[in-house]
Specification:
2 copies of one chain form a homodimer. The first copy, chain A, is an alpha/beta fold. Chain A folds into 2 domains: about 5-15 and about 80-110 and about 240-450, Rossmann fold (3-Layer(aba) Sandwich), CATH 3.40.50; about 20-70 and about 115-230, Rossmann fold, CATH 3.40.50.1100. In chain A, about 40% of the residues lie in helices and about 15% in strands. In chain A, the strands form 4 sheets. In chain A, strands 1-4-5-15-10-11-14 form a 7-stranded mixed β-sheet, with helices on both faces. In chain A, strands 8-7-6-9 form a 4-stranded parallel β-sheet, sandwiched between helices. The first copy, chain A, is globular, with a radius of gyration of 20 Å. Chains A and B meet through helix 5, helix 7, helix 14 and helix 16 of A and helix 5, helix 7, helix 14 and helix 16 of B.
């Protein structure tokens, strides 16, 4: 057998040159975005006031299987990609499992996460269209950092609305974004109608991704030369993130490996959708049949306890409606520390695949997640982001199951990023001050009450 | 010409399996460590109460050219090495220089710096000798983090004394070390004689690496089963860090390249000594003649304004005397933000090479350093540590000189680490609150007055 290295880097030449559009191989398509008033499906053109034109077309394109990655995007990818495929020899040994555990590590860049993959694409298309700048929201700050880097690189202005609870927990995230030239505002803020309305309703709210999205969209549509960009949920984002899965599959092929189980954390779905894309293709085309597992926080369980329904993507009701697993746009997640997973909805593509039985979902508790994070860090030496640690938790659980059954399964999980800016959460865990919030049925019902009425 | 990739990773198989001991090729040796009372040279055995035995022997070995890297050390290296050799295409373009700029990036690991290279070696030898634990000091926190990772991996206890000003500026550094199981105490502290003496003299001091070393050494020699380890200055550390230079030279050979200029930041000399090792070997053996430049902060200018003299390595006078460029062990550097460069002395090996004319040194001001850091980050997308940014400043200056002269020189610099934990310093720079402290001659004279009297 070939000796499998601890970390495998594809060469620059081996880097994928096309993104893969999962929708092209889905037997049934996700339901289209619809207008909140008329409930009519939205054509690409109707999205042009919000998104760059090329991105709007990617958003609505269900048939083009592959999109060429533009050269300037590839050039910036080459500053941190291909990312390593890692064999977790030490974790396997520590668990005493016969399973082979692989992880694709996306944290080796200054944003500290996979978010840069889509940020670069979105900034590039904005520049190509001759825009002045972009607006966005950020939760944990990884998306905002990534977009700051991309905007600095392509010479675009950037306004970031950062979920207030994260803004306060992570003061230095803001400083990183500012180093790359971005404006950062805590959300909800009094700079937008949407923000003022949310504050009027609850002046002490810590905010949410949903609120921040409302503010960023409003800012974009009311400012000449600006468009809005989003780091997750959208079809275009999953398209760009497919590079994670494409590299993973290619690297595993070089090692003569293929995963039995693919695991990713799921907030809005950007990492999960990207990681699983080519493996899901294999599954949709009947070539292979890996198990695919989405891992979400028990505090924000959109797949495992949400409804598959049309809902707003934001709290302020400025976006179109998307059909997805959702807790209701009015659901306010508890301030847990995996800021990137505090979102009421889920990518429509992933929601449809889950609905149709192509993937599984599990919800895990925060203290169990941090236990896995610390165990992983000590043997694999990478300090994971809390978001990523959800996938670690599930990978460990699956590997321990293999230990019981004696099966030598091959597990691949996505290690989306690093936890350098999440040390307040780690401290809370170490000090025993971390709580596990699991919403009651009554709390969920309150969220579902915010779902828009459909004919 | 071969197309040179943005990042070149050697494969696991190409990883160097031996460290290189620069002293073996020096025509004149650095002066030996001597006993502070008798002024007699210290044999390896006399260091056993402080250092592990194998490390003490490495410390005093001037003739063994190569040391095999133990297999368990190689195994842990494989979790983050080989590190990438990067071609700074974007920086070259931004500067409009004909120079080719390369950098060896050591920040792709959780410690965020090159420090892990020696931490692993030192922890391994301690474990091999059957010790219970280690003590150390840390400035910026990178060494402490690295050693925490290594001790967690090998199952050793660790007590870290962290320079108080850094402890306060970087609360989350502490949390990272604690995640890996280390005890962290701000220095000076009341837990040691040395700390209490320093506090009695100046209760409000922000501390220094020199103070913290005194405390850590005292703690090691007064606790059964503990030894002291240091992340810089020592000959053994330069030996372990030679892996940086060995990988760099090997990667450049694959690209058919060789540096005309090699640049590294210099605090105690760990990165610089490691990066330049094989190039200095070429120079010592007359095979090539690259310029080698040490870059230090103007606030702590040991090479450019210090004396070449025997001095204590610490402030509390618990260490042997080393002959080196020093500002005097009583010199208290201004609280600038490159914590890793706030040390009164300099590696005896590098001091000797500098004294004998084999390398140059420049001192740079902090605001100029951060200007270079931000310029670099925006085009190369890596947020550099302030320490590393000293080398960036000098590399940019050399590249701009090439622009003036039209020379297409090949520049290699060491990008020792990332700046995620230095955002308070970046904020101070952005807000215009950063000051440049350059010690007056009177301040230097005060430091020199602390040099021990020699017969």
């Amino acid at each position: 057998m070939t000796k499998i290295p601890h970390r495998l880097y594809l060469t620059e030449d081996q880097m994928p040159r096309r993104w893969y559009n999962l929708r092209a191989d889905m037997k049934e398509q996700p339901d289209p975005l619809i207008h909140p008033g008329t409930h009519e499906p939205l054509p690409a053109e109707s999205l042009y006031p919000i998104f760059c034109e090329k991105l709007a077309r990617q958003e609505t394109d269900c048939t083009t299987r592959y999109f060429d990655i533009p050269e300037p995007v590839l050039d910036m990818y080459k500053l941190y990609r291909p990312s390593p495929l890692c064999r977790a020899y030490n974790l396997e040994k520590a668990l005493g499992t016969p399973a082979k555990i692989y992880y694709k590590f996306e944290g080796n860049n200054t944003s500290g996460s996979h978010k840069l993959n889509s940020a670069i694409a979105q900034a590039y298309y904005a520049k190509e269209q001759g825009l002045k700048g972009l607006t966005t929201e950020t939760g944990a700050g990884q998306w905002g950092t990534a977009l700051s880097e991309a905007c600095a690189y392509f010479g675009l202005d950037l306004k970031v609305f950062m979920v207030k609870v994260s803004y306060e927990q992570k003061p230095y995230r803001k400083a990183v974004m500012q180093t790359f030239g971005a404006d950062v505002t805590p959300s909800p803020s009094d700079t937008t109608e949407a923000g003022r309305a949310i504050l009027a309703h609850d002046p002490t709210t810590g905010g949410s991704l949903g609120c921040a999205i409302s503010e960023a969209v409003e800012m974009a549509v009311t400012h000449e030369g600006y468009r809005y960009v989003l780091g997750s949920v959208l079809n275009q984002v999953l398209l760009h993130q497919s590079i994670i899965g494409l590299e993973s599959r290619q690297a595993m092929e070089l090692l003569d490996e293929y995963p039995d189980i693919v695991i990713g954390c799921a907030g809005g779905g950007s990492n999960l959708g990207g990681l699983i894309a080519p493996f899901m293709q294999d599954k949709l085309l009947g070539r292979t049949d890996p198990r695919i597992i989405a891992v979400e926080p028990a505090s924000c369980p959109s797949l495992t306890r949400g409804r598959y329904a049309y809902d707003f993507c934001d709290t302020g009701h400025v976006t179109p409606l998307a059909r997805m697993y959702t807790l209701g746009n009015g659901f306010m997640p508890a301030p847990n520390h995996a800021g990137g997973l505090r979102y009421h909805g889920m990518s429509p593509i992933l929601s449809k695949l889950y609905h149709d039985g192509y993937m599984e979902a599990v919800a895990v508790k925060q203290t169990d997640v941090f236990e896995a994070a610390v165990q992983f860090a000590k043997v694999e030496t990478i300090l994971p982001a809390p978001e990523s640690a959800h996938a670690i938790r599930s990978a460990i659980d699956e590997a321990l199951r293999c230990k019981q059954t004696g099966e030598a399964k091959t597990i691949l999980f996505g290690l989306t990023g690093t936890g350098y800016f999440d040390m307040a959460a780690y401290e809370a865990y170490h000090n025993g001050r971390m709580r596990n919030h699991v919403p009651t049925d009554a709390e969920l019902a309150e969220g579902f009450a915010s779902l828009p009425a459909m004919a």
